[in-house]
Design brief:
six-stranded mixed beta sheet, five-stranded parallel beta sheet, 14% strand, globular
C-alpha cells in the first residue's frame, strides 16, 4: 500500500496519546453538528457520493476487547467514550446472506477456520478485481483476512452499496445464477442500487456508525491490551499490536472499496486526507485520564457482591454510567423501574409487578430480609422519579450498596404481608384445569403461611374469541373466584407479574377487576388508569374477549349481595366453596351478546388508551384523537395535532395565529375534491400516506411558511395546536420556522392552566413522539438519548420510531438547550437505537 493515498487513508499516520485523544474528543464534542441540509440526504442510505465536510470529526474504533491475563479483565470494560466496535460499521457475517457457513455461530476447529479464511480471501480478491481496487499481497492480506475471521465481519463498510447489493440483498441474491453466487459476477449499475435502497431509508440508524467512519477527519484505532508477556515500559502502538495494525489495514481496504462507489470520480480523487492513527500507551493504570472512558477497565472482582441481598455490583454501576453502550441494559433498568410493584386493590391485597420484583422478593425472602413499606413515597410510573434516565452518574460504594440498589431498583418492596399467590403470565401458559386448581387451592389454604400458591396463566394477546369454549371460560371465571377466596380466607397478598410488568398480565388483571369490582370493561379501564395509576396494555383481541365476557363476570361478582352472601359463607367453615359452573345457555350468551357502542369504538384503539408520558402529557394516535369523549374523561384540555387533521374539527374552522386569519381543512372523512377558494390560502389536493385525499392549506402570497404551518385555536372545550404539512418522510422539518419551540410553549400554557396535553400524529410513533421527546428533554433536563429511552418505555408496547431527520433535528436543538451537553455523539445514538429495534425489524 502507498503511504499517502489522496482521498483515502494510509498504513497509519502515527500514534496518539490518550491525553491528545481526549483533547480531540473535547473539541469534537464542543463543535456544533453540521446543518441538516449539509448531511442530508447523504445520511439516509448507502453511499453513492462523497461525504460532506465535517472538520475535526473524530471516530474512535476499538480493535479488540480486553482479554485475560493477570489481572483478569472484564472483556466489555475499558471502553473509550463514543467508540465503535468492528461489527458496528463493517458488514457482519449475520448481515450477509450469501454464505450460509458464515452465519453458523458454532464453527470451531482448524478445518472450519481454513474454510472461513478461504471464503473471506476469495471475497476480497474477487471484489478487488471487479472494482479495480489494488489490494495488498502476502502478510498484509493474511492479516486483513485473519482479522475479519476473528471478528466475523467482511472487509466492507455497511454503507457500501455494491457490497450490500451483492452480499446482503435478498432480492438480488435470489435472482442471480449460481455462477454469480460463486463470485464470478461483475459490478452493478448505480440505478440498480437505488432501486433496492429506497425502502425505509429514512430510518437507517444502523448505517450511521459507518457514515461516521466515512466522515471522520481523524480515526483513532485502539485496544487496551499490551503485547502478550510484555511488561512496562514496553508500549502499546501499531507496531506492537497486531489487532490495531490489522484493523487499520481493513479500514484502508474498506474505504478504497466504497470510494469506488462514488459516482463522481473527480470528487473521490479530491477527497481531503483523513488521518488513521493508533492509540499509544505504556501503563494502563497511569496513562489514561479518567474522563476518557465510558466504562473504565474493570477486573472480574468488580462482579463480586459483599452481601447476598446486594443487587447491583460495581460492574453494573459502571455499565449504567456509560450511556454510550448496551442500551438494552439501560432499557431493562428503565422498564423494571417504571413498572415496579404497585397495589391495585387494597381490600383484596392485589399487587402487580414485573419479573425483577418477583426475583427481588424471592431473594429477600430466601435471606430473611424484610423490606420496609414505602407505598406512600413510591413515584408513579409516569413521574420522573420512576426513571433511571433522570439519574446522574452513580458512585459505587460497596459499604453502602443499599443506596445504589435503591436508585436502580425497586428495592423496598411496598407490602406489609407476604405473598400467598404468585401468578406468572406468559405466552407459554395454558388455562388452569379447574379440578387441579381447586385441589391446589385447598392444599394451600391448609398449609402454613410460608406456602406459596404458584400459578401460570395465558398472557394478553395470546387468545381469540373463537378459541374459547365452556372449559376455558370456566377456568377464567374460577381463577378469579379462587383469587377472591384466598383474599377472604387469608391476610396474605397476591402478585400478578410478567417480564415487563404490564403487557402479559393485563388480560388477567382486567378480567379479575371486572369480576371483583362489578364494573364494565370501560369503567375498569379508566379506573385502573386514573385511580390505580397502573400501566397496562390491552390488545384488540383482549378487548373483544373481555367485551363478551364482562356480563358473565359481573353476574358472578362478589360485589353483588346474593353472591357475596354465598361466597363469604366459606369463611365460616374455613375452606373454599366449590368451583363455579357455566351452563350451555350462559356460554351461548357470551357469544350472542351485542357489545355497547362505546366498547365498539374502544376495539379500534391500541392500548386502548393513549400512553401517559408525564403527569401532564399523553402520547397517542389519530384514532385516539378522533375520540374527544375519551380525551375528556382522561382530563385532556389541550391537543397537539402533528401533521394530521381531526374529524370532529369543523371544516370551516377559523383560526388566528400571529394576527392572520386562517381557515383549516379536514382530512377524515375526506371531502370531495373541489376547486373552491379558501380565503388567504391556496387549496392543494395531495395524496397522503394513508392513501386518501387530504385537504391542506398552503400559505397565501406574502404570508410565509410560518403562518401556514402552525396555528392555535379552540373548539369544543379543547385548546388545539395544529402543525400542518408535516409528513414522516425523512425530509420535513419539525424545528423549522420555530414550530417545535412554539409547540412546547403551547404545552407550557397547558401545564400552567392545570390541564393535560395530548400529542398525536397518525400512529403516535414518529412525529408526535419527537415532540414528546423534546418536551422530556426540556422538562427533565436530560439529553436526547435519555429522553428517547424515557418516552420509549412509557409508550406502552408500541415502539417509537422517529426518523433520522427528526432525531438529528433534536440533537441540533439540544445544542441550544442551556445546561445540556452532547455527551453521546450522533453515530453512537443511532447505534443504540438500531440495537434496540433490531429484533422488531423484519
Amino acid at each position: 500500500m502507498s503511504h499517502r493515498r489522496r482521498g483515502g487513508v494510509d498504513d497509519g499516520d502515527g500514534d496518539v496519546s490518550p491525553q491528545e485523544l481526549l483533547r480531540w474528543l473535547n473539541v469534537h464534542e464542543a463543535m456544533e453538528l453540521p446543518e441538516h441540509n449539509v448531511v442530508f440526504p447523504w445520511l439516509h442510505s448507502y453511499s453513492r457520493s462523497v461525504p460532506p465536510v465535517y472538520p475535526d470529526a473524530v471516530a474512535v474504533l476499538r480493535s479488540r476487547r480486553l482479554y485475560g491475563g493477570a489481572p483478569h479483565w472484564l472483556p466489555d470494560s475499558g471502553v473509550i467514550v463514543n467508540s465503535l466496535d468492528p461489527g458496528d460499521y463493517l458488514i457482519s457475517w449475520t448481515d450477509q446472506i450469501k454464505f450460509d457457513v458464515l452465519r453458523d455461530p458454532d464453527l470451531t476447529g482448524d478445518n472450519d477456520a481454513q474454510e472461513l479464511h478461504e471464503i473471506v480471501e476469495s471475497v476480497l480478491l474477487q471484489d478487488g478485481f471487479n472494482r479495480q481496487v489494488i489490494l495488498p499481497n502476502g502478510t498484509v492480506l493474511d492479516s486483513i483476512v485473519g482479522y475479519c475471521v476473528e471478528n466475523r465481519v467482511l472487509p466492507f463498510l455497511k454503507t457500501d452499496p455494491e457490497a450490500w447489493q451483492k452480499y446482503c440483498n435478498k432480492n438480488y441474491y435470489s435472482s442471480v445464477s449460481n455462477s454469480v453466487l460463486q463470485g464470478q459476477g461483475g459490478s452493478r449499475t448505480a440505478n440498480s442500487i437505488r432501486t433496492v435502497q429506497q425502502s425505509h431509508n429514512f430510518r437507517r440508524f444502523d448505517l450511521q456508525p459507518a457514515k461516521m467512519v466515512e466522515l471522520a477527519f481523524k480515526s483513532v484505532v485502539y485496544c487496551l491490551n499490551l503485547p502478550p508477556g510484555s511488561t512496562a515500559p514496553q508500549s502499546h502502538n501499531a507496531a506492537t499490536c497486531c489487532s490495531c495494525s490489522a484493523l487499520q489495514q481493513v479500514l484502508d481496504v474498506a474505504l478504497l472499496f466504497i470510494q469506488k462507489c462514488y459516482t463522481d470520480a473527480n470528487q473521490a480523487r479530491d477527497l481531503p486526507h483523513r488521518e488513521l492513527l493508533t492509540l499509544a500507551f505504556t501503563n494502563l493504570a497511569q496513562d489514561f485520564p479518567a474522563e476518557i472512558f465510558g466504562t473504565p477497565p474493570l477486573t472480574t472482582e468488580s462482579m463480586n457482591r459483599v452481601s447476598p441481598i446486594q443487587l447491583a455490583t460495581q460492574s453494573d454501576v459502571m455499565a449504567f454510567n456509560n450511556w454510550d453502550s448496551d442500551l438494552h441494559f439501560h432499557e431493562k433498568l428503565e422498564m423494571q423501574k417504571m413498572s415496579s410493584m404497585t397495589l391495585v386493590d387494597e381490600n383484596h391485597r392485589l399487587w402487580c409487578g414485573n419479573l425483577t420484583d418477583y426475583q427481588v422478593y424471592r431473594l429477600f425472602q430466601k435471606n430473611g430480609y424484610a423490606p420496609n413499606d414505602n407505598t406512600d413515597t413510591k413515584p408513579l410510573y409516569y413521574e420522573p422519579g420512576s426513571s433511571v434516565a433522570t439519574l446522574g452518574r452513580i458512585h459505587y460504594d460497596k459499604n453502602h450498596f443499599e443506596e445504589t440498589d435503591s436508585q436502580l431498583f425497586n428495592r423496598e418492596l411496598p407490602m406489609q404481608e407476604p405473598l400467598k399467590v404468585i401468578i406468572h403470565c406468559s405466552d407459554r401458559a395454558t388455562f388452569p384445569n379447574v379440578k387441579r386448581l381447586w385441589r391446589e387451592l385447598e392444599e394451600t389454604l391448609r398449609e402454613s403461611q410460608d406456602t406459596t400458591f404458584a400459578l401460570s396463566y395465558p398472557c394478553s394477546g395470546s387468545l381469540a374469541l373463537g378459541n374459547l369454549n365452556i372449559s376455558s371460560i370456566e377456568s377464567i371465571l374460577n381463577t378469579c373466584y379462587a383469587l377472591y377466596q384466598i383474599s377472604k380466607l387469608t391476610p396474605l397478598s397476591t402478585l400478578l407479574y410478567c417480564t415487563d410488568g404490564y403487557t402479559e398480565t393485563t388480560l388477567l388483571l382486567v378480567t379479575y377487576l371486572i369480576f371483583l369490582w362489578d364494573l364494565s370493561l370501560e369503567d375498569v379501564i379508566f379506573q385502573l388508569h386514573k385511580e390505580r395509576e397502573r400501566p397496562f396494555y390491552l390488545f384488540q383481541v383482549d378487548l373483544q374477549i373481555l367485551g363478551h365476557l364482562q356480563t358473565l363476570l359481573r353476574n358472578f361478582s362478589p360485589k353483588r349481595t346474593h353472591n357475596r352472601t354465598v361466597y363469604d359463607s366459606a369463611a365460616a367453615h374455613g375452606g373454599p366453596m366449590p368451583p363455579l359452573a357455566i351452563s350451555a345457555e350462559m356460554f351461548s350468551e357470551v357469544f350472542l351478546m351485542k357489545l355497547p357502542d362505546s366498547l365498539t369504538d374502544f376495539n379500534k384503539l391500541n392500548g386502548p388508551l393513549p400512553s401517559r408520558i408525564l403527569p401532564h402529557l399523553y402520547l397517542g394516535s389519530l384514532e385516539h384523537a378522533h375520540n374527544p369523549e375519551m380525551l375528556r374523561r382522561l382530563g385532556v384540555t389541550h391537543i397537539v395535532s402533528v401533521g394530521e387533521n381531526l374529524s370532529w374539527v369543523s371544516a370551516n374552522r377559523t383560526t388566528r395565529h400571529m394576527g392572520v386569519v386562517r381557515h383549516r381543512g379536514i382530512s377524515s372523512p375526506p371531502p370531495p375534491p373541489t376547486q373552491q377558494a379558501i380565503p388567504h390560502g391556496i387549496l392543494s389536493l395531495r395524496e397522503s400516506s394513508r392513501r386518501r385525499l387530504t385537504l391542506s392549506q398552503e400559505p397565501g402570497p406574502g404570508e410565509g411558511d410560518s403562518a401556514g404551518l402552525f396555528s392555535v385555536f379552540e373548539q369544543d372545550g379543547f385548546q388545539i395546536c395544529k402543525i400542518d404539512n408535516l409528513e414522516d418522510n425523512g425530509r420535513d422539518l419539525l424545528t423549522g420556522q420555530g414550530q417545535l419551540d412554539r409547540t412546547l410553549e403551547f404545552i407550557d400554557r397547558g401545564v400552567l392552566a392545570g390541564g393535560k396535553v395530548f400529542v398525536h400524529c397518525m400512529v403516535g410513533v414518529s412525529r408526535s413522539a419527537t415532540v414528546c421527546i423534546a418536551e422530556c428533554m426540556k422538562r427533565l433536563q436530560v439529553d436526547l438519548l435519555r429522553a428517547y429511552l424515557y418516552v420509549r418505555v412509557r409508550r406502552l408496547n408500541i415502539i417509537i420510531q422517529p426518523n433520522l431527520m427528526f432525531m438529528y433535528e433534536l440533537l441540533k436543538w439540544q445544542e441550544t438547550s442551556p445546561g445540556v451537553v452532547r455527551r453521546t455523539d450522533w453515530h453512537v445514538l443511532c447505534r443504540a437505537i438500531a440495537e434496540l429495534n433490531r429484533k422488531y425489524i423484519r
